[in-house]
Structures are given as C-alpha cells and as structure tokens.
Amino acid sequence: MAIVDIDDSAYERLLLTLTNGEQVELVLEDECVLVYFEGVKIGEFHFNCYEQPVSPHMDETIARLTHAFLEGENGRFKGQGIGTEAVRFFVQCTDYRLELPENDGIRKDDGSHLVGDGPGFVESLRKKLRAGLL
Hints:
By secondary structure, the protein is an alpha+beta fold. It is built from two helices and seven strands. The protein has helices spanning 82-94, 118-130, and strands at residues 3-7, 13-18, 23-29, 32-37, 40-55, 58-69, 97-99. The protein has a seven-stranded mixed sheet with strand order 1-2-3-4-5-6-7, with helices on one face. Strand 1 and strand 2 (13-18) form a beta hairpin. The protein is globular.
C-alpha cells in the first residue's frame, strides 16, 4: 500500500487515501500529529518546539521530532509514507524549522531516542529534508 491521494480541504486535518482504498486521517493537535484509521488512533508524532535566536531582534521556532509511533493495527501502516506525511503536515501547518534526532543511542532530556524503525525513518526524513521535500 502507498498514498495515492491527499485531501487537505479540512482545517488542520489531512485525509490520506491508500492504494487499497483505505483512508487514514492526520490531525494536528498542539505540538503533535495524531493518526487515525476508522476513528481509532493508530499513531502519533510529537514535536518539542522552542525558540532560537537568528538575529538580535528575531527568533526562529524549531520543531524537534521527539516521538514517532505508527504501531496501531499491528504496525501494518508503516512503510507507506504516512509518517513522512505526518511530519510534512506539521511543518507546513506551523512553518517551523524541522530538527531531527541523532542516532547516538542516548535518551535525550526531551525523551527522544531512536529505536526499532526509528533510525531508518529519521534517515529517510533527513534525505527528504536535504532535497527540499519536507
């Protein structure tokens, strides 16, 4: 399965249609994106947002990805681009600069660390970020 259509007609919501016709909804809520399938939460992507000075009179908001879960439905929605769309959706809605965690095996103060599919997912995001696709 993969994403074949994205409906962004609702405010702070995206409806993703997959190749098999199933639909997954992304909902922006505070500093996270919640992922639903048939009304049941199957994942969530959390960001720690903070201000960083870029000049004496201007700050930039940074959104650091701290938690990424897409485990619902036994993880069957992983590897289809839903996580990437969730991150892209958050960045587009907020206009914050994305910061991704390092794969150094250390649990950070914000709780971020990479386990399971995390290192591969973050590396994929890094490539897309460098290519201007996020």
